[in-house]
Amino acid sequence: MEKYNKTIGNFGEEAATKFLMERGYKILIRNYSCRFGEIDIIAIEDNCLVFIEVKTRTNLKYGAPEYAVNYWKQKHLLLSASCYIEQYRMNNYFARFDVVEVFVKSADNSFDVENINIIKNAY
Fold first, then answer.
1. Nearest in space to 10 (alpha carbons), one of 52, 56, 60, 50
2. What is the predicted pLDDT for the residue at 78?
């Protein structure tokens, strides 16, 4: 199951990256990691530094994907974003935290995107 989750997560991140680029986001880095955690995508949109968490789901059995970004996850993302800003000296940008929900259907170990939704200023 863990391998399946990693596979579907990677597929969702690829789909989200393409979705964001098509909407004018400039992708700076993917899977940024520091001692506090990982940020899926860091991008710039309209002179705003955007930290993006991608959640991919095949169904709503465990609720909407955005609700998986709970208090503890948000705390780790905020600390990780601070590390990124300090490391790359990006403190001249406004910052924002978005969640991208990727809904996929799966069949025979392959995936197709059904819908992608972006929640700007998610928290």
1. 56
2. 98
Tokens, residue 94: 């406004």
**Average predicted confidence (pLDDT) for the chain:** 93
Domain 2-119 sits in CATH at: 3.40.1350.10
Given strand 26-34, what is the order of strands in its sheet? 26-34, 37-45, 48-57, 94-107, 110-119
**12-22 tens-digit pLDDT:** 999 999 999 99
Tens-digit pLDDT profile for residues 47-78? 999 999 999 998 888 888 888 999 999 999 99
Largest CA distance in the chain: 47
Residue 25's alpha-carbon distances to 46, 52, 87, 109, in angstroms, are 8, 11, 21, 30
Q: How far is CA 33 from CA 11, 23, 79, 99, in A?
A: 19, 25, 11, 17
